[in-house]
Amino acid sequence: MKRVLFAAALCGAGLAQAGAISGFTGSYAVGNWTSSAGTGTIAATPAALVLTSGDDGSGNPAYTSFYIQFTKSATVNFSWAYATADDAPIYDPFGFLLSNDLAGLATGFGLLTDNLGAQAQSGSYSVVVAAGQYFGFEAQSDNTFGAATTTINGLRIVEVPEPGALALLALALTAAAITTRRRRAG
């Protein structure tokens, strides 16, 4: 019985970690994301993403974004470090994108920087993304008085196990319990 329970515990731990992806790798590799640099720049590696907002002097708003559609529900965790040469972060904010469709990305911006805060900021964030939703990062710009640069690292995406995998684990645990009960009764 102890062996059966130990095997079931290992199976459960494996299921919990099987969907964990670190960095821009696997299904979330850099090449699978869509980038839209606007007047800014994007530099991406498996370990980090660097978004630099535009500063072409036009005064026209611009958006530098990097996004992907999720095929599975997941929790996304990441750290970010931001610095702007502009007068205040309100002119070149950074945040994440979350939307049910591509058209909604324009309004699905979640501000992470403090608009009235320091010119250098950092933090960590966690967000739940449903299967089918688009998720990404965005640096916005007023295109004047200096750009802002944000580095995203420590990306960790924990996918929710498929219902079938959880049902299989529950079936294995039930079978183990029935087998143990029959041995004790017999």
Task: Assign a percent range to the helix content.
Answer: 10-25%
Uncertain segments are 3-17
Mean pLDDT level: 86
What class, by secondary structure content? alpha+beta
Q: How many beta strands in the DSSP annotation?
A: 11
Tell me about the largest β-sheet.
6 strands, antiparallel
CATH topology of the largest domain: Jelly Rolls
Distance between the termini: 15 Å
How many distinct helices? 2
Reading the helices and strands in chain order gives HEEEEEEEEEEEH
- Spatial shape: elongated
Gyration radius, in Å = 22 Å
Just name the CATH architecture of the largest domain: Sandwich
* Count of separate structural domains: 2
